[in-house]
């Protein structure tokens, strides 16, 4: 079954077309990556799918709910971990998790239970009482994803989740993201080719708001005629420019 | 529940910031003690404790606007607001969560000023309670400025507009530091066209227990508060939809 069905989705900002007639299907439980150079339309696509911005035309169904006409229903299904860590700096890690549980309408006891569960799952125990602003980048990212998962979303959007992290923190976060595979649908945007290759079930490459190609890493490499994914990405994007 | 959760978060963010204690409480108290010391050496009726306290209390509220604007602006730049926009929270939850917790914080800040004033021989009377009650509409005016600036400006701009411009306007145009009659002319007209001096005069009326001119001052403050609140809500909601 498809978790997301994108149908001719477009977004214009004045004369500039950020996303141009995008159509895609993403399966339930799939880890799907959106790749592209800066300005390709990845973040705008995520913003539309997460109801942060309205499409100029087209629609997308998230588990059957329309982003154009059923915004409230869509918001019950999704969670977003934005490009910035998006944590409340003067709250402790525990309070950040409780905040997200509270705004999703969890009763206090349920929120505490869920916070304890996620702290265990994400290894946050040692930093739960620390203010978020005192945490390292890696811990903040980990907390950010845990905050997104507290509402038990069916679809999770991860926008550049490992941006600026060192190699160890990135590897640890990859393990966390891998563990989500098959359980919920994850849409990931990233600039790191090796990240997309290591984590994704399928990848869509975007350029100037349009879909260049979509498939597994093997299919993309085969199409580009190379066995290196990064080279395949460069060839396909450059080919598209011509 | 959502509003309550978000309100608690707003209060914690502000109360845990050391700058809140320094500027919100410490700075107005320093001014109160300093000007009282000047008054003790060179008696000036303007700086008598019953005249001075309302001015300091209203001046202190300009920092509430700064705290509010800084918090909202940082929530925007850190994408926390973006994250929260994807939750089932409604515009009313955000607005109430940003506005309501700052009202008791403002009243507490003013109460600390009045307690310090009592230590400086302000007579204890029920009028102090009336003065504290009137802090609510005045604080709403300042909170609305914070909401408006936080919705439109980045945190550096907020520092300039709310941290420098608003605090200075609030001080110069309130008649607290110097008698506006002595300046006169356009400056006086401008001061009386804005709500700051009316807020101070309204507080003075309450503290002295007189109704002379009270309703005129109250009307000015009320009209400015309603207008500023309406504008801030409109802008915040519009920016939220634009996001």
Features:
heterodimer; A: 242 residues; alpha/beta; four-stranded antiparallel beta sheet; B: 243 residues; 12 helices; 82% helix
In helices, the fraction of residues of chain A equals 25-40%
Q: How much beta of chain A, percentage-wise?
A: 25-35%
- Rg of chain B, Cα atoms, Å: 18 Å
CA-based shape of chain B = globular
Please report the distance between the alpha carbons of the first and last residues of chain B: 24 Å
Overall average residue pLDDT of chain A: 91
| Domain tally of chain B | 1
Which blocks of ≥5 consecutive residues of chain B have pLDDT under 50? none
What's the shape of chain A? globular
One letter per element, helices H and strands E, the order of chain A comes to: EEEHEEHEHHHEHEHEEHH
Largest interface summary: A-B, 33 and 25 residues
Please give the radius of gyration of chain A in angstroms. Answer: 18 Å
Strand arrangement across the biggest beta sheet of chain A: 6-7-8-3-9-10
Number of alpha- plus pi-helical segments of chain A: 9
Protein described:
Chain A is of the alpha/beta class and 242 residues long. Helix content of chain A is 38%, strand content 27%. In chain A, the strands form two sheets. Chain A has a six-stranded mixed β-sheet, sandwiched between helices. Chain A has a four-stranded antiparallel β-sheet with strand order 2-1-4-5. In chain A, strand 7, helix 6 and strand 8 form a beta-alpha-beta unit. In chain A, helix 3 packs across helix 4 (108-121), helix 5 runs parallel beside helix 6 (167-180) and helix 8 (217-224) packs across helix 9. The longest helix of chain A has 14 residues, at 108-121. Chain A is globular and about 50 Å long. Chain A starts with a strand and ends with a helix. Chain B has 243 residues and is mainly alpha-helical. Chain B has one domain (2-242). Helix content of chain B is 82%, strand content 0%. Chain B contains twelve helices and no strands. Chain B has helices at 2-15, 18-41, 49-77, 80-85, 91-99, 102-119, 127-152, 155-172, 180-183, 185-193, 195-208, 214-242. The radius of gyration of chain B is 18 Å and the shape is globular. Classes of the chains: A alpha/beta (242), B mainly alpha (243). The interface between A and B is medium-sized, with 33 and 25 residues.
